Amino acid sequence: MVADDITPSHQRLNKHDGSTANPSDTMAQSYQEDGQKQFYIFGHNISHSLSPTLHNAGFKAVNLPHHYQIHESENVDESVETIIQRPDFGGASVTFPHKLQIGKLLDSVSLRGESIGAINTVVVSAVSGKRVLHGDNTDWIGIKRCVEKSGARDFAYSSALVLGAGGAARAACYAVQTLGFGELIVVNRTLRKAEDLASRFPDLKTRSFTTLEEAAAAKDLQIRLIVACVPADDLGAEKIPSGLFSGTGDGVLVEMAYRPQVTGMMTVAGRYPGWKVYRGVDVLEEQAYAQFELWTGREAPVEAMRSAMQAKLKEKI
To answer: What residues does the Shikimate dehydrogenase substrate binding N-terminal domain cover (predicted)?
Structure first.
């Protein structure tokens, strides 16, 4: 079933909140109070992005003059470097395929960003009067909050399956670790990439496979979370083994793709009433609130941002 508990589990960022930060990893927060700043989403094939709708609604709701826009490029090139060096650059969201590349242009990266190995947020801050470009990751927060909204659970004896090995999959694995799962399963068509990703999380028991069929056939699995981090077009419902969902009475699917509205993975999960489904737009929404707070130092205006996104989605249907 597609989750109907759509009220965001928004929590204000603070350094003592284990879901967002910890005392040993102080976030470089940007307090954009003076003058209009320009914010961007950097990536490729992102003309459909809902991020401008979310963030511009947020700025408007709290009376900030900032503007958020799309900047497309095939890679992190000179155009991106030029933008982030401008005095009016306020910050950026970073999406595929730039999450693994943007770090080369930054002055610092959060401990979470380093652990994940992917950056989806650029924050401009001042340290001792010097302008600093700081990288962080909020994708994992979006995933974690969706799972938490599904209800309190003890995952210590459960497995989580992450499909893919790119930047989003890295954030998913980090979320799995923070949620307290006993085992991480990584599935990727290139086994070496799956194994390399799994090895980044030595505190977890891990297994790696090249196909979902192999994972479903493995012994002693209690899969209660699946995070799909591959293009939805790559995976029709007929390619998804039902054994991934039938082994436990309940679970959570987080589908990171937000087009089409119903993916093959969502179709199969929907056949099992105990499984709750969260869409890519749910993750996008939750991680955007965290980005907004990093950029502005203000609590995200959740209702205004969410209402704007829902209105935009209705236009696209």
So the answer is: 41-122
- 140-278 has the same fold as 38-137+282-316: yes
Q: What is the CATH number of domain 140-278?
A: 3.40.50.720
Token pair for residue 295?
A: 């950029």
pTM, two decimal places: 0.88
Considering only CA atoms, which of 148, 162, 131 is closest in space to residue 17?
148
Q: List the beta bridge partners of residue 225.
A: 160, 252
User: Can you read off the two tokens belonging to residue 283?
Assistant: 């993750």
**Residue 139 near residue 17, CB atoms below 8 Å:** no
- CA dist 70 and 315 (Å) reads 19
Q: Is residue 146 within 8 Å of 4, Cβ to Cβ?
A: no
Sign of CA dihedral 222, 225, 230, 232: positive
Q: What tokens appear for 117 in the block? A: 């190995």
CA angle 9, 13, 16 (to 5 degrees): 110
Q: Which two tokens stand for residue 49?
A: 């992005």
Q: Do residues 117 and 64 lie in contact, with contact meaning Cβ atoms separated by under 8 Å?
A: no
Are 106 and 89 in contact by the 8 Å Cβ rule? The answer is: no
Q: Select, from the ranges 22-26, 27-31, 210-214, the one with the highest average predicted confidence (pLDDT).
A: 210-214
Domain spans in the chain, listed from the N-terminal domain onward:
38-137+282-316, 140-278
Domain 38-137+282-316 top-level CATH class: alpha beta
> Phi and psi for 40 in degrees, rounded to 5?
-140, 160
H/E stretch holding 173 reads helix 167-178
In this prediction, residues 21-46 reach a mean pLDDT of: 69
Beta bridge pairs of residue 205: 183
Q: Decide: helix, strand or coil at residue 272.
A: coil
Which residues, in sequence order, are CB contacts of 97 under 8 Å at separation 6+? 43, 44, 74, 75, 166, 167
Q: What percent of the chain has pLDDT over 70?
A: 89
Of 290, 299, 298, the C-alpha closest to 51 is: 290
